[in-house]
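Dear colleagues,

As part of the handover before I leave the project, I'm documenting each prediction I ran so the next person doesn't have to rerun anything. This entry is a single chain, and its sequence is reproduced below.
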Amino acid sequence: MNQTIPKILHTTLWIIFRRLLKASTRFVVEGKEHLAAIGAPAIFASNHQSEMDPVLIPGALTPRSPFFPIYYVARGKGKYEDLHPLKKALYGGRFFQWLGAYPTR
């Protein structure tokens, strides 16, 4: 997968969402210093309590991080039929590919 589009999109969204997170929440990142010992690549696994995971995980990092852009595994386009029409249009399609999501089969 080409890294240019996800990198540009992640950086742009990071600028927007990081400001929103700081203005609207007490967004605190703990343990970030331990990432230096891990090095890239790494797997960040979330338990998906909400649809905010793709915003919160990159929001905890910076665009200069060796972990940027973050790539995801997501259901394929046809697996989102039970959702609201707006989510159905965004989820699993071209937008997810631009974000760096790999569809499951």
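The chain has two domains: 1-27+47-70, 74-105. The two ends are 17 Å apart (CA to CA).

All the best with the project,
I.
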